[in-house]
Amino acid sequence: MHTILVLGGYGFFGGRICAALAADNNIHLLIAGRNAGQAQAMANSLGLCSDQGLAIDANAGDLAQRFAQWKVDTVIHTAGPFQGQDYGVARAAIAAGANYIDLADGRDFVAGITQLDDIAREQEVFVTSGASSLPALSSAVADRYLHRFSQLQSIRHGIASGARAPGLATMRGVFGYCGKAFLRLQNGRRTQVYGWLDTQRHVFPEPVGARLLGSCDVPDLQLFAQRYPGVHTVTFHAGFASMPGHAFVWAASQLVRCGLLASLVPLAKPLHTISQWLEPWVSDKGGMFVSMRGVGIDGKPLELTWHLLAASNHGPHIPCGASIALARKLAAGEKFEAGAKPCMGVISAEDYLAAIAHLDVLEVPA
Ligand SMILES: NC(=O)c1ccc[n+]([C@@H]2O[C@H](COP(=O)([O-])OP(=O)(O)OC[C@H]3O[C@@H](n4cnc5c(N)ncnc54)[C@H](OP(=O)(O)O)[C@@H]3O)[C@@H](O)[C@H]2O)c1
Predict the structure, then answer these.
(1) For the packed helices 12-21 and 168-175, what is the interaxial angle rounded to 10 degrees?
(2) Is 79 in the pocket of ligand 1 (CB under 6 A)?
């Protein structure tokens, strides 16, 4: 049995990951968060024993000892937001001789995981950050189509959510950069843009249709420029299913940009509650796209776009695919190279999507 501890295991994404792993015969699952009652209730709801729900604080000084005490083989860290977090959980996992996987979407956090490479190699454990839609799935899709280009020049990608609001950690992470300046590569130059502004309209295949999207500060903006040399433009945009909701956050982001509001983070909790009330009136459909442009192997201009469409409010399962697939592979005895790196080139798009294939999710290949 491979013991997997999901930190944040009764959270929005953690709960979905635990539900997927609970039935795996190779996995002994431990569900952790700061609230023992919620962790135990989650364990019971999945048919596990109460003692598989644990109270663990990610900031506890004895984290490594706790992981060792529970003989944890792999830690899945979902207790964001990751923006501004240190690598305490990853360091504790490594010290306990456990593999480490996280769902981070913080740009510096995911890129900086390589600073743990030496100690991860010494301890012979696998450490990866960003095992989620970004950059794991986005890079796997770009890798899949790379061979069609003699020269890849631009990667534009984005996500339009459905009605179901993600957890508070996700909203706090996104709201943290709304209206704030950040840099992205555009036409070969580092260009300053602002979170949730730079509005774009993307037309997804039906039944998702046209959506408004705003610019987001994500790991891919930094990592793709290194992974795909020669690329001169990398952009990422995201949007809500509710147009009024999207417009409200856009307007509030303008206030942050002008200095009239310090941050949207205090709005995360009330807007999270409001979006839960509004869920029945908002589309249950969402999608992700990756558009690549450049010169094809025949020397002619080439542009292609890959889509993933979700209905029945199954979109929130998509970010869980990488950690589920990796956990199952590790539990089945598959070896991953020891060391610490962003989650790119670790899992194929096929393996990622296989982990969520039973859901109402449709791939539209390029
Ligand atoms: N890279 C990507 O593409 C991508 C996509 C989607 C989401 N994400 C990331 O996924 C993360 C999780 O999002 P979510 O929507 O699932 O958030 P969530 O519903 O708020 O869940 C967070 C979980 O972490 C627990 N937690 C918080 N602080 C903790 C601490 N100090 N120690 C232990 N547990 C703690 C929470 O429980 P308690 O508060 O009770 O402890 C909760 O169970 C976010 O940070 C988001 O950025 C990444």
Answers:
(1) 140
(2) yes
